[in-house]
Design brief:
alpha/beta; Quinone Oxidoreductase, Chain A, domain 1; Rossmann fold; 6-stranded parallel sheet; 10 helices
Length: about 350
């Protein structure tokens, strides 16, 4: 067993505190990684507070992990000590079903997707612990190669916020000639803007906050619309081919779908409490959702980011600041992702 230092929640009310635990020894198919940086995702807060389902405690959150290989098992293939690597939302699956074999491990048909934390290993009893820690051991098939040209601090959020937006953009073939609205400018929204712009689409940032306009343009958006201003909204009726909706608060889907052309597509990557509500008036338009991508697509995304020098905009923090960071995430007081420097543990 490998001794590890981390931060854990011991129930859904109390703050995260230091917690020592153990990782499994490195097996022939495993990679041991020293964690350098770990992003804070809003889903970490949901899970720590048992807002989606009862949590498994103690819980060590974190699924936006960047680090360096310490030890690689004899079957670990391309990985060797010193390699820069990443781990996202998954650390294992059945490896055998059609979904897993086709690179969509998040949809494992045997129900054996093992999430990076607040989950159990394939033995269905051993808890998984995430990246708010100094070490992790992971099956080689779920370890990603991180291009050396990228700033590591900004890479960590790519493993969730990045792939969550990249995957539907690629699935729907968004690119040159398309008019794309990005709804919301947070951790997901700012990545959607960067990817869509890099792929040649015309991008408009849709926000209720006029103070997001300057940042929208800085990130590459061609246009900005304050959706509270009717004069700004009028020219955008039936305008977009796609809207990428990153908002996790309740909002009027029918209203936003009125901005789509006939046969336009509204892509939800944020899920409000209570789910989606439509009146049925948005006919001749499609609404769809997307979660994370599979491992091959996540590697493709990292390589794309290296080609276009894309990383997340981050605020790097000491791990002792994690509880204050959670409160700031809830207030949308971060541009646009907190990343924990694991050297501070």
């Amino acid at each position: 067993m490998i001794p590890v230092k981390g931060y854990a929640a011991h129930n859904q009310q109390d703050p995260l505190i230091p917690w020592d635990f153990e990782r499994r020894a490195v097996g022939p198919d495993d990679v041991e990684i020293d964690i350098l940086y770990c992003g804070i995702c809003h889903s970490d807060i949901h899970q720590v507070r048992s807002e989606w389902r009862p949590g498994i405690y103690p819980m060590v959150p974190g699924h936006e992990i960047v680090g360096r290989v310490v030890t690689a098992g004899e079957n670990a293939g391309k990985f060797k000590a010193g390699d820069l690597v990443g781990i996202g939302c998954m650390v294992d699956s059945c490896h055998e079903c059609p979904s897993c074999k086709s690179g969509h491990e998040q949809f494992c048909e045997k129900g054996q997707t093992v999430w990076t934390y607040n989950s159990v290993e394939r033995d269905r009893k051993t808890p998984t612990y995430g990246g708010y820690s100094n070490k992790i051991v992971c099956n080689k098939d779920f370890v990603l190669s991180v291009p050396k040209s990228l700033n590591l601090k900004g890479v960590a959020p790519l493993l969730c916020a990045g792939i969550t937006t990249y995957s539907p953009i690629k699935k729907w073939g968004i690119g040159k000639g398309h008019k794309v609205g990005v709804l919301g400018l947070g951790g997901l929204g700012h990545m959607a803007v960067k990817f869509a712009v890099a792929l040649g689409a015309e991008v408009t940032l849709l926000s209720r906050s006029e103070n997001k306009k300057q940042d929208a343009h800085r990130l590459g958006a061609h246009k900005f619309c304050n959706t509270q201003d009717n004069e700004q909204v009028k020219p955008l009726k039936r305008y977009f081919d796609f809207i990428i909706d990153t908002v996790s608060a309740p909002h009027d889907y029918d209203w936003y779908m009125s901005l789509l052309k006939d046969n336009g597509v509204h892509i939800c990557v944020g899920l409000p409490p209570g789910g989606l509500k439509l009146s049925g008036l948005s006919l001749n338009r499609a609404i769809t959702g997307s979660s994370i991508g599979g491992i091959p697509e996540t590697q493709e995304m990292l390589d794309f980011c290296a080609e276009h020098q894309i990383t997340s905009d981050v605020e790097v923090i000491d791990i002792s600041y994690v509880n204050q960071a959670y409160e700031r995430v809830l207030k949308s007081d971060v541009r646009y992702r907190f990343v924990i420097d694991m050297a501070t543990i």
